[in-house]
Specification:
This protein has about 120 residues and is mainly beta. It contains one helix and nine strands. The protein has one domain. The strands form two sheets. Strands 3-4-5-7-6 form a five-stranded mixed beta sheet, with no helix packed on it. A four-stranded antiparallel beta sheet has the order 1-2-8-9, covered by helices on one side.
Length: about 120
């Protein structure tokens, strides 16, 4: 059984890609098909997660002009706060993309039960 904690920076196996990431940008948009997006900088390129209010396009992977990969991921706008919560509060983080069925997600490593969140002492 493979554990994400054993992944260094990038691990590719079978038909899925898992890459650790350390930086991202959040865009709040108006006047176009999606309301918000998160761009994740990956070792192999970029993942663009688009949060949409209506029906969404299918996820895809495309090459950029420089030869890097562009992972285009679409999900419901209702998921936006959950993504932001994970991005702000967890580390390390990994981007996952299944090349066969185009399923994608971000994930953490295994964490011990009862770890809890950091508490600010007054």
């Amino acid at each position: 059984m493979l554990c994400l904690a054993n992944f260094k920076e990038k691990y590719t196996m079978a038909n899925f890609v898992t890459e650790e990431f350390k930086t991202y940008k959040v865009f709040l948009l108006s006047g176009i098909e999606n309301d918000a997006s998160i761009h994740i900088k990956l070792p192999s390129g970029v993942a663009v997660i688009r949060f949409v209010s209506g029906s969404s396009n299918k996820n895809s992977v495309e090459p950029s002009k420089s030869g890097d990969k562009i992972f285009k991921v679409y999900t419901s706008m209702t998921n936006f706060p959950h993504y932001i919560d994970i991005l702000r509060n967890e580390a390390p983080l990994f981007f996952f993309y299944d090349l066969d069925d185009q399923v994608s997600y971000i994930t953490t490593t295994d964490e011990p039960v009862g770890e809890g969140e950091w508490k600010v002492m007054s």
